[in-house]
Amino acid sequence: MQSAHIAVSTEALNVAGVLLVYLPILVISFRRLLPQFATRARRLAGGLLVAQILVIAVALILDPTSEYERLLWALYSLEWNDTEWNIPATLASIQLALVGIVALLASWHAGSLPARQRIFLTASGPIFLLLALDEYLTFHEYIPNWKLYYGALGVGLAAASAYMAAQAPRRALIWYLCLIAGLAMAALGAIAFDTLWICDELGWLRFDGCLNASSWEESLEFAGIWLVLAGMLGILCDRAPKPANGVYRWLYAVPVVWVLLLLIISLTPRFELRLAAKPASVAFKTGVQLQGFHINGDPDSVTVRLYASARQADYVGLGYSIHLVDQVSGESIASSDEWADRQHGFWLFGPDYMPTYRQRMHVTIPPQSPPNRALWVVLTLWRKKAGEFARMKIVGSDLQLLDRQVVLSEMALPSDATAPSPTSLAVFDNGFTLEELEWPESAQAGDALPLRFAWRSDEDSVVDHIQFLHLGHGESGDWWVYDQQPLGRRLPTRLWYSGLADSETWLVPLPEDLAPGSYTVYTGLYRHRDNERIPALDAAGKPWSDARVRLGSIFIER
């Protein structure tokens, strides 16, 4: 016999979860907490509680007509895994900022309170102000193991609040209990419900698909922040029931000032673009335009900061990819994919507002990646359509393109340093040294002549050089010439770095009609842009005539 189940929609369960959170708080706050506040403080706290409920209600019942509208009100996004930089996040940030300001005001008016309580309030203020900024700007995303640190911070605040509660007089006990309860609720939402999924049924309830409890999480966090604010306001009202200079009146200005601060912060990529970024002009079909970028690299990783402009509506659902692509094989050796960071889009100005966005991409290079190979740093923009990630078409660019990809820069992974050779064949004026040469005594016309050149660089280079090979016939005086890059296409000299030590085996195709006999062999370097040869010195420090290094002789058979 099957047990009875009641069918219910996931939307109804979300609403029920929110009601379970807020109904007890509404009863407690209007019966026990708000009546003890000063008039202006009571209006501020009550208004924020109502604002919370309204925002959550709109988020749950709104039927959005666009992706921008959906994200503007969303409590949580299953697709993008973030809902920062919208109306709910702004309200949460404002409330945390108010907690910090109220804590500092309470410390200022602490008067005869014991030093430990003044220290607690003074330290709490900056902590909550930083949390307010992080709530909107998500600094924690750039901190490894941030959940561990934030958890420790929350435990520390709760423990300090419990200690203060144990020392507080009876009339102030309720406010410290509000602090502890609020912190516990926020932690419960962030930890217990952040990844909670319930599929098919919950006890005797049955519903279609899977329920994501993100609305419960946000409700607990919202309500927890409000309880923390109520606790701080209660402490302030106890210490300064009728303060001078209109303290409570000025608290009403905090939300306005905080929104203006977030607006100013949203403009920072514009300043960074002008001060630190390499300019670019790459236009994509949907209206997104790359205006600049900055790249830092080391042997273990590459960090790319991108600066793009777009209408806020066009930026929704956008994604970035950075690939390190081998220039010879065309294969990607490392990559990073990220949804577009909307941190600097300010919702107050609507979907047509065109901010400058900053995107930080971090590419970790696998340990087994081959060194001394030319790599392109390649950017791709994409959108997810019908389950596929479609590359965005490029309609104009001042940078090199690879199909629908933009080449931002190039680089090479350095090899481990080695000691210089005690001997050398030639030292060139540009800091390059030809250290060794291996070749056969004779070769067959029509075959490939193997030559292994060992090179070293004592300076960083940004110039392309070509190495020439001249074979002069001893009897006829005829010359045969062959040119290529010293280390082949895998590492052009513009990417050579100080400390480079590497070799390349050339397979020089000898013509079938090459006259037999003894040939004198010369080599050297010239700049690709102007064909100017690079002067060189021999092992004794004497210049090679005509900037040609004499390697010796080889016999060509036929």
SSE map:
Layout: E1 6-7, H1 10-33, H2 39-61, H3 67-73, H4 87-108, H5 115-137, H6 146-167, H7 170-192, E2 197-202, E3 205-212, H8 214-239, H9 247-251, H10 253-266, H11 268-275, E4 278-284, E5 289-297, E6 301-309, H12 312-315, E7 318-326, E8 332-339, E9 356-364, E10 374-385, E11 388-391, E12 394-397, E13 401-402, E14 405-412, E15 426-428, E16 432-438, E17 442-444, E18 448-457, E19 465-473, E20 479-484, E21 501-509, E22 517-527, E23 536-537, E24 549-557
Parallel strand pairs: 1-3, 17-24
Antiparallel strand pairs: 2-3, 4-5, 4-12, 5-6, 6-9, 7-8, 7-10, 10-11, 10-14, 13-14, 15-16, 15-23, 16-18, 18-21, 19-20, 19-22, 22-24
Helix pairs in contact: 1-2, 1-8, 2-4, 2-8, 4-5, 4-8, 4-10, 5-6, 6-7, 7-8
